[in-house]
Amino acid sequence: MTSPSEELLPTTRRSLLHRLATAQREGRAPSLAAAVRRGGRIVWSGGRTGLEGQAADADTQYRIGSITKTFTAVLVLRLRDEGLIDLGDQLEKHLPGSGAGGATIFQLLGHSAGLSAEAPAPWWERTPGTLRPKLADVLGEQPQLYPAGHRFHYSNPGYTLLGSLVEAVRGVSWEEALRREILEPLGMDRTTYGPVAPYAEGWAVHPWADVVVSEPAEDLGLMAPAGQLWSTAADLLRFAAFLVEGDDRVLSAASVREMRTPASPVADPGGNGYGLGLQIVKTDSRVLFGHAGSLPGFVAGLWFSVDDDVAAVALANATSGLPAATVAAELLTIVADAEPRIPEPWRPLPEAEAELVALTGIWHWGTHTFTLKLTEGRGLELRPLGSKGRGAFFTARPDGTWTGLDDYYAGETLRVVRREDGSVDHLDLGSFAFTREPYDADADVPGGLDPAGWRGIGG
């Protein structure tokens, strides 16, 4: 059996190199660096460059644009986890005069606050941040395009507000909070506010001729929390590992799972969504989490698959032409498809209470049949049997109830209702009564059972 931490197969490495090389050539990128992480370490990295003396490897810095937003989201969630804010708070509670109206912190994180996509002219990505010294200069005269909470509308100014929130609550700059609370604990010493050699210069490539022009690298000022950072493929893969597993020095595993949970009403027929600072992309075979990024002179992509235990990064120094986010997803897919994750061996639970084992098996909600399984840590898994229906994982609470973790029952309470003699009458899930028999006559089912019972109907 192959360990997932061993080197990739030569054929897989060749496929990765081929995709990297064709992407750089067809996308006409001055340089392209990429890397893949699996099983806790980087298993492949590569670079292609068309410039003399220009490095392109996993330690070369590129500007990462909107991947910066994910870092800002982590800083905000840290404030929540410390009890300093609540995600349901209106921003105005902590940042009076912000201009965000009644928008909540949660809505700003998930781009459903109704704010405009961009700051007022001139184009903020290509002009110095000193042109926008105040939040009013970032938001403009009509920042609210839609009522808060009604729809997904990606907003760069929204993340500017979140960065200002961090500064207001912490009492330090966004840059200092970022360095102290995320970069240093995670060992990301090649992720910085400004470029630190070796780094790639930003270029624009002419659409109809193989010539380039240098792009300005502006300090974005107040807009920095939306897109300022420079990083490397290696550093971003460290960040991806954190976004999968969590790190109690930064954010718990539960909080990073929350980041990966859809937070906004995205009207996307493909099922794509946005969590808290993370994009969610659904393909035919897997769900990818991460973020795309771009600023003049640079494009970037970071994606990871929790189920496949694979993450990939692609970074290029071209304003357009090469879809770095797509390339990163393709590199991830090459590894996940060519060398599927070897599952852990099945093992019995370390311990299981007889009372909980007795709850497992077949249950009925009306005439719908479900299975209930016991999982690790006293958790439960409810699934429909043989047909489509609502199911979910449930985590145990100290009070003897369970909380739904996903889909329809996310946040809902599952509890055992017992008779006076201690035997189980039914399971209550958000007022739905689950019984051992369909409409069990011996259980306290709302509406009861027709006294005539189950019967045939004559012709």
UniProtKB/TrEMBL annotation:
<dbReference type="Pfam" id="PF24491">
    <property type="entry name" value="DUF7586"/>
</dbReference>
<dbReference type="InterPro" id="IPR056008">
    <property type="entry name" value="DUF7586"/>
</dbReference>
<protein>
    <submittedName>
        <fullName>Serine hydrolase domain-containing protein</fullName>
        <ecNumber>3.-.-.-</ecNumber>
    </submittedName>
</protein>
<dbReference type="InterPro" id="IPR012338">
    <property type="entry name" value="Beta-lactam/transpept-like"/>
</dbReference>
<dbReference type="InterPro" id="IPR001466">
    <property type="entry name" value="Beta-lactam-related"/>
</dbReference>
<keyword id="KW-0378">Hydrolase</keyword>
<dbReference type="InterPro" id="IPR050491">
    <property type="entry name" value="AmpC-like"/>
</dbReference>
<dbReference type="Pfam" id="PF00144">
    <property type="entry name" value="Beta-lactamase"/>
</dbReference>
<feature type="domain" description="DUF7586">
    <location>
        <begin position="353"/>
        <end position="436"/>
    </location>
</feature>
<feature type="domain" description="Beta-lactamase-related">
    <location>
        <begin position="23"/>
        <end position="332"/>
    </location>
</feature>
<dbReference type="GO" id="GO:0016787">
    <property type="term" value="F:hydrolase activity"/>
</dbReference>
